[in-house]
């Protein structure tokens, strides 16, 4: 029987091959492959001295730093499972989430210690802070850095990944070592320089694994800022960037785009929204033909990709989410339970080796999301005659009005065509009882003011009277975002309700900040 080799084995082999070469850039300092591998081995021995063995779960409130990655790989090297915890804003919800996960150890850093619940229900360890007896980094310094044999088995739980939680409490999808190793083993060029400025709790950790396993370099930044992102691309000669959709449009519209040398870029991948074609075209005009649209989810893995070569050959493809990836099965289930034919819209269901094996300690949610090997994404879309996938939006965001399926992009496209509108996002309204289907945030260009009445007329002209009547709208200087960088639906709903109330009271358009 062939011995199982996990992704950690492959990664450590690659670090050994590049022992003298930088594989990480953190706080503008290089970490070589040899130094990083030594850190992993030391942390593995330190974790073992804390009692971490196969079957345990080590969870972290982790900043974007080399130590957090080393601890994750060290944990998996011991055959234990890992999770980067989401920084849920509500202390009560954060405590409930940690309690549900039931980690054996909970690790916090100087930057994240404030996130630890008062009653965590787990053993606490720290890096860079806390009492000396609980300092994992201090204990690691005195350990040997000789190789540690990987104890992971194919079917052992390896990694738990948080969803964005933009529609409520985050879900926690789980994957075995075999499943995770398959997911992060896609080919990756050795000259790749991946900028990682998104929280490790989400897709960033997949990009880190994939880049390091391919022999590339990961450049870690503490968080996202448009000016810092553009500066880092120039200074670090970044080839690949991942941005959540609102971040992409904030970055491309930043004035520094004109003065930064972005010639090293090969791909700016964006996720987290349907991204209307009018905005994608503007991104390409400003950043060059480097835009890569990826459709997927923490539960479903990567489903389809629209690459620069695709849309350069056929500009009409900017309306789509690209070709379905090899090895991924997609079916569209109509409202009556039958499967859609070409061009017919319905609920998107996905099956592949990258699909999660369920949710961790969330059986009710898992039963609703995973059925017979298929992941029910919760999104609405269709497949065209060339096998390109079109995503209309989340099921809650899509409505059939006057016999036509209307998704957020249809509304957003009409608004972004107006000269005063820089960006717009439409999300499902919580006030359906009042006739509102969508709450819409509209962002003006700097120095301009959005006329909400004119915006409503644009929606009516493009989508019809019935759609316009189902829209509640507010002008905002910036779309409110979650920790992951996705739109904050609750906040948009709040401002739209407030704007409508003001307009009713004053009979004038209202603007929010």
From TrEMBL:
UniProt keyword Hydrolase, yes or no: no
Gene Ontology molecular functions: acid-thiol ligase activity
Organism: Caballeronia fortuita
UniProt name for this protein: Long-chain fatty acid--CoA ligase
Coiled coil: none
Protein keywords: Ligase
Gene3D superfamilies given in the database record: 3.30.300.30, N-terminal domain of ligase-like (3.40.50.12780)
Highest rank taxon of the organism: Bacteria
Transmembrane segments: none
Start and end residues of each AMP-dependent synthetase/ligase domain: 17-360
InterPro entries, per the entry: AMP-bd_C_sf, AMP-dep_synth/lig_dom, ANL_N_sf, ATP-dep_AMP-bd_enzyme
């Amino acid at each position: 029987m062939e011995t199982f080799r996990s992704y950690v084995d492959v990664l450590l082999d690659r670090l050994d091959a590049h022992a003298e070469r930088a594989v990480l850039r953190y706080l503008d300092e290089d970490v070589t492959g040899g130094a990083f591998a030594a850190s992993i081995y030391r942390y593995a021995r330190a974790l073992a001295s804390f009692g971490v063995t196969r079957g345990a779960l080590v969870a972290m409130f982790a900043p974007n730093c080399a130590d957090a990655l080393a601890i994750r790989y060290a944990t998996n090297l011991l055959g234990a499972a890992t999770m980067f915890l989401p920084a849920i804003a509500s202390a009560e919800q954060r405590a409930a989430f940690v309690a549900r996960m039931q980690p054996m150890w909970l690790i916090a850093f100087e930057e994240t210690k404030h996130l630890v619940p008062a009653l965590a229900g787990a053993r606490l360890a720290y890096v860079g802070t806390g009492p000396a007896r609980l300092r994992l980094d201090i204990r690691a310094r005195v350990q040997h850095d000789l190789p540690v044999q990987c104890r992971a088995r194919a079917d052992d739980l390896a990694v738990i990944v948080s969803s964005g939680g933009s529609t409520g409490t985050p879900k926690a999808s789980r994957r075995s070592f075999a499943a995770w190793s398959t997911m992060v083993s896609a080919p990756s060029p050795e000259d790749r320089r991946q900028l990682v400025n998104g929280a490790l709790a989400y897709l960033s950790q997949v990009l880190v694994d994939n880049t390091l396993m391919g022999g590339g370099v990961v450049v870690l930044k503490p968080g996202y800022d448009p000016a810092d992102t553009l500066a880092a691309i120039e200074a670090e000669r970044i080839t690949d960037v991942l941005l959540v959709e609102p971040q992409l449009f904030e970055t491309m519209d930043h004035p520094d785009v004109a003065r930064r040398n972005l010639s090293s870029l090969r791909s700016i991948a964006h996720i987290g929204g349907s991204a209307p074609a009018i905005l994608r075209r503007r991104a390409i005009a400003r950043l060059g033909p480097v835009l890569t649209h990826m459709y997927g989810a923490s539960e479903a893995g990567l489903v389809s990709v629209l690459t620069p070569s695709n849309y350069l050959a056929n500009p009409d493809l900017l309306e789509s989410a690209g070709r379905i990836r090899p090895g991924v099965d997609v079916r569209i289930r109509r409202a009556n339970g039958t499967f859609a034919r070409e061009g017919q819209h319905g609920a998107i269901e996905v099956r592949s080796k990258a699909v999660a094996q369920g949710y961790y300690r969330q059986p009710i949610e898992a039963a609703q999301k995973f059925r017979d090997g298929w992941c029910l994404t919760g999104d609405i879309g269709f497949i065209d005659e060339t096998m390109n996938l079109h995503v209309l939006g989340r099921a809650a965001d899509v409505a059939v009005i006057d016999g036509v399926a209307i998704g957020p992009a249809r509304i957003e496209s009409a608004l972004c065509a107006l000269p005063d509108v820089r960006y717009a996002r439409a999300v499902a309204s919580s006030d359906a009882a009042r006739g509102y289907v969508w709450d819409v945030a509209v962002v003006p260009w700097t120095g301009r003011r959005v006329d909400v009445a004119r915006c409503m007329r644009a929606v009516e002209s493009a989508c019809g009277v019935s759609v316009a009547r189902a829209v509640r709208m507010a002008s905002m200087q910036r779309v409110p975002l979650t920790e992951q960088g996705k739109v904050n639906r609750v906040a948009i709903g709040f401002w739209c309700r407030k704007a409508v109330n003001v307009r009713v009271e004053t009979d004038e358009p209202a603007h929010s900040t």
